[in-house]
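#help-structures
NK: newbie question, is this the right format to request a structure? protein is Benzoate/toluate 1,2-dioxygenase reductase subunit
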Amino acid sequence: MPHKIALNFEDGITKFIDSGESESIADAAYRQGINVPLDCTNGVCGTCKAFRQSGEFDPGSYIEDALSDAEAAQGYVLCCQAKAKSDMVIDILASSGACKVKPKDTMAEIVDVKALSAHRIRLSVKPLEGAFPMFLPGQYVNVTAPTETVKRPYSFTSAPGADVATFLIRNVPGGKMSAYMAATAKKGDRLVLNGPFGSFYLRAPRRPILFLAGGTGVGPILSMLEHLAARGANDQPVRLVYGARNDADLVEVERIEALRARIPKFTYDTTCSGPGSCHPLTGHVTDHFSAGALNNGDVDVYLCGPAEMVESGRQHVAKLGLLPANIHFEKFAPASEAIAV
């Protein structure tokens, strides 16, 4: 049976291909119009070396000069030799342009657009034909309103494969897309979604996970949580610390609570940092996790939010003196910096 392979390129574009168990990853990619870097086809040159994020495979045969034992142990594969034995996620060590990959346009229509607070909007859309392009939980698309000249990147908050895709949008004063979403957008309006893009996505859970989210940075983490809930049993503890400046902007908490019931070992805390907050927990995200959350370094950390929040989170983790096994982050920056998240 064919397996689905996600190819992640250095410029953030992801392309999904189907691969049979009898064909190499490179042959499957070429058959579907993607020219992964390749100088030979017999495991000699090493040009097609890529990094396996997840998935099972037959490594094939090759010489030590092309792929050393140490590199293979780290997770590298040769695309001209490796054959998928399950769905896989692979980092291609080249840009999508070098491999002649074009991001896909999907025409969609608005199902719902709802103001969750003065500064937060939830957008729900469905494709006009077929399904949305596959994406990894945490990735984004560039969204364009056909009647507008502006496009903006928004992360999916829904799980891959959902019939309706959702996005959490920050309403930025003076922002063109924000003005459209807040005052003009309505059910039935058509949008163009271009992508998917981004290297901030959920890796296969092999150890405890710590999610740190600020403002609308909770959006891609919601997609990750939805994916964890949809895939069923997960033995690893999952913790989320989610913060906003204003109480009213701490949105989607009911959704997070519903996810807590669906994900084993999932816990979360919410906090507000603005003056005069009435929230049970106040302060910044970094005020509400300590060294214990890092599990002696055996943890994957995902950080997403405004640039200053991400940097303070990284600095706080460093000060705790326990280097995480992996730390992934994405900084959200609006087109206009008129207000702070």
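mod (FA): yep, format's fine, and the tokens are attached above. The mean pLDDT is 90.
NK: thank you!
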